[in-house]
Amino acid sequence: MTEIRFPCTVLNLISGIDMNELDLIKSAYDCLGRVTPLATDCGRLCAGACCRGDGEIWLLPGEEALFESADGFEVKTYPDGDTRVICKQSCAAYRNRRPYYCRIFPYFPRVCRQEDNSLSVRLFIDPRAAGLCPFAAGSISPDRRFAKAVRCSVRKLCESDIFYEHFLECAQFLDEMGEFSARLFGEGDR
Questions:
Q1: Which of 17, 28, 102, 103 has its CA 20 to 30 A from that of 150?
Q2: What is the enclosing helix (H) or strand (E) of 107?
């Protein structure tokens, strides 16, 4: 079967993403800047465990447009419309071009609109970090500047309902994953 590749502008129209959303993604990247979970390279704690392997990384809606023709990345789109990226080289080679979820790892945001329409952003350790990231064990906490930058980026993205809904859906999936894991491994029985 032949794979059809669309130009970024067509992808944006297909996925309902316009240049405003791409600008928000880039603004979210700017919020994060060069801040990392620790003041030093946190990869030294775990030998860069989150940046190794052929794992697929979730993408924000429309973020695939930034990776479609980028060296070192392979974009994978599933029949349900879910789009992910596979990194083909070490993080060190393209650190400034990482996908959003790599930039905020090990955090994942939980968002909620308040009655006054203000946005509540809470960060939790992504359950997929378990057994991979030293922060997941709770013995070390990410730098507060990192948490502040992640919240800033989430608020920027949530200026669009597309990203707000995306965060809600992803958080629900991670909650269900955590519940399944607890049942599977009997963590709730203790």
A1: 17
A2: strand 107-113
